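Quick check before the chapter quiz. The format below is the same one you will see on the exam, so make sure you can read both the input and the output lines.
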Amino acid sequence: MSTAVVERERQKESEGEGLPPARRVWVMLAVVCGVSLMSLDSAIANIALPTIARDLAASESTTVWVVNAYQLGSVLCLLPAAALGEILGLKKVYAVGLVVSPCRRLRARSRRRLDC
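Here is the expected output.
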């Protein structure tokens, strides 16, 4: 078989597989960006544990629940976001999430007191 025939066969096989190869790269980058943000959030919460324990005069085993609650809150937002994505479109909801999530983190970081 010639290389042209092999290429045509590959194109026929890949046509029914979803996105074209050029767009797959962008989708993969978007997914990696989202997963990286979630991993970064978890790492930041774990790094802050000793400070939280010291400021609240709590044991380290007690403050682990702070990270669990933080991660649980993040995960609980995924189910409504997935349902909203099915209604409004996955791309739009994902893009809004990538913008809103860092803004939420910056707003929380700028707070000096918990009662604000």
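If your answer matched, good. The helical segments are 3-15, 21-47, 49-56, 60-76, 78-88, 90-110.
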